[in-house]
Design brief:
Elements lengths: L2 E4 L2 E5 L6 H6 L13 E6 L2 E7 L3 E7 L4 H7 L6 H8 L3 H9 L10 H10 L5 H15 L2 E4 L2 E4 L24 H13 L4 H4 L4 H8 L7 H10 L11 H11 L6 H9 L3 H14 L2
Antiparallel strand pairs: 1-2, 2-5, 3-4, 4-5, 6-7
The chain binds a DNA duplex (13 and 12 nucleotides) through helix 6, helix 10 and helix 11.
Length: 282
DNA sequence: GGCCAGGTGAAAC
DNA sequence: GTTTCACATGGC
């Protein structure tokens, strides 16, 4: 992936392995709504991020400015998805799935936002998850104004001090409210500490995340994949169960070991492409 | 209007 | 350890 960072803007040269429409609509991220014309906007890491599509490049601007490192990591630009597609195209199913979703990249998203977002996600659907996340930002986030338009950042943990289930009622997240409260409490107390977690390995992070009420196998794996970048994680949801059954004839009990055998440390990518393939192709 | 949703905790075996 | 069930609310 060719890119350069200058004048606080990230330039990404056009490449079939970088397609914003797929990256943001494949179900990993919920705050990058479509905007007018050739510009897509979203909020992450406390900033407005704008992706402008030009003839030969994408220009990515952030306000307030985000560092090159955050943006490059966010879009996973250092990883060679062409090479990954090759490695995963051993069988006909993955070959098709990788071709169908070509252009998807796994975003490296903010930990706290990812934690709450995927707690909201259980037993829900993508439009509704987006609403819960949006409402959380509206109620508790900070306002930023860019070109006369106001946006709300996703709240940092300290904005949710003393959060109660009642406070969350307008979010309409139902029974997940008590899970959110527990997650916030554990983050604020330091029991769940991102700076500690980011130096730990996949299984240790996952084990720690599982101590949060409402975080089970699947949500923990989503956080490991979408925030920590542990590509050996293979979040197994209803769609993936359907995909593994219908495409590979692998039943639920065998998914864990089978995915490890088949995809190894590319499991997370395989998962996201399979999810997108089944979810948006039927 | 009923069924289902990017699941999980708790209670029962 | 595995199975079963309730859970709150919106999308379709």
């Amino acid at each position: 992936m060719k890119y350069e960072f200058s004048d606080n803007k990230l330039h990404i040269y056009k490449d079939e392995y970088f397609l914003p429409d797929l990256i943001f609509d494949c179900g990993q991220s919920f705050r990058f709504f479509e905007a007018e014309g050739n510009v897509r906007r979203g909020i992450a890491f406390g900033s407005l991020i704008e992706i402008e599509t030009l003839e030969n490049e994408y220009i990515i601007k952030s306000t307030p400015d985000l560092s090159e490192e955050i943006l490059v990591d966010f879009f996973d630009l250092k990883r060679d998805y062409k090479e990954i597609e090759k490695m995963l195209s051993n069988d006909e199913v993955m070959k098709k799935a990788m071709g169908f979703g070509r252009g998807i990249r796994i975003l490296k998203q903010d930990f706290f936002e990812t934690l709450l977002t995927f707690i909201y996600s259980q037993q829900s659907n993508i439009p509704r998850i987006a609403k819960c996340v949006e409402k959380t930002a509206e109620l508790f986030g900070s306002e930023i104004e860019v070109s006369g338009v106001k946006y709300r950042t996703f709240p940092t943990p300290d904005k949710l001090k003393n959060l109660t289930i009642t406070d969350l009622e307008p979010v309409k997240c139902g029974y997940r409210g008590e899970y959110i409260v527990d997650a916030v409490k554990k983050v604020l107390s330091g029991e769940i500490d991102y700076n500690e977690l980011k130096n730990m390995d996949y299984l240790s992070v996952k084990k720690k995340l599982l101590t949060i009420k409402g975080v089970g196998e699947k949500v923990a794996d989503c956080i490991c994949l979408f925030s920590f970048g542990f590509f050996e994680a293979f979040p197994t949801d209803t769609w993936i169960k359907k995909a593994m059954d219908s495409l590979y004839n692998i039943k639920e009990a065998e998914i864990k070991s089978a995915s490890q055998d088949m995809f190894g440390n590319l499991s997370g990518i395989a998962q996201q492409y399979l999810f997108y393939y089944l979810r948006y192709n039927k």
